[in-house]
Amino acid sequence: MHEPITTLFFSQSTEVERMIHEEESNDDEIMVSFVDLEFDLEEENVPDNLTMSAVHSKSFDYEIQKLRGVAKERHDIFFEQVKKVKESVDLKVVNLKSEMSKEVQKMEQNYTFLHRKVDVITTTITKLVALNTEHSNKLEAKSKKRFSSV
Fold this sequence. Notes:
With 150 residues, the chain is mostly helical.
């Protein structure tokens, strides 16, 4: 179906290969781009299927570039939406913390108010018990005097 990829013809070279022949360069600096590959159909006897492969390669590269652009746009849109949602969530968290702080403050005020009321009730009950005990002791003392005088 597809023929294996063959080596370049002698007259066909990439821009990088031309630069390598002109000056010595480091292996780390060499990058080959097959987009720059050009066929000279008149000079070389290039088979039709190889010519079509080059056309398909350029078409494929163009499609990849288009898809890369679309993916970048979608990534940017997605990232913006995520940022908006994050800002919204952060704002809601701040509002919720503020409301919770207010509610905690109300609960502390209610606790203090109720604690004062309980203290008043406790003091009142203590006084009533003391008065009742004192009154009971006086009645008991009077009744003992009556019974002892009789």
